[in-house]
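[job 4471] stage=fold_predict status=RUNNING
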Amino acid sequence: MNNDQICSLMSCIPSLNSLIISPYSLPLVAGAAWITNYYHRKQNEEYIKLENGGRPIPGYSFNEYGEKICDEYIKELIIQLIETEAFGYGYYKLTILLKRRFKLIVDDKKLYRAMQGNGYLKTSDT
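[job 4471] inference complete, writing structure tokens
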């Protein structure tokens, strides 16, 4: 097949012709939008990231009944448990204890941050 035959074949199929001649128009031909972060930054020069990211800490958790429990109350519970029976517990065991005994829906990362802020985290001996 020579070049003339290929060109006549490509002119019969317009969508294939547009894909072969302009390979950069593939997302537009396929009906998909070209969505990337870099693309939008290049298009919108005034885009500036103002915040560090992440969502703000809400300051409360819930119990199993759907009631809001303030973080300060959770910190008081942690202090009370550490002073009485959970002296050697880490943040993960304290999380399990709060979930079982007080029916709290709380993440272990939240307890880690609370214990770190109050100076109750212990260093590992390993």
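[job 4471] summary: The chain has two domains: 3-43, 60-118.
[job 4471] exit 0
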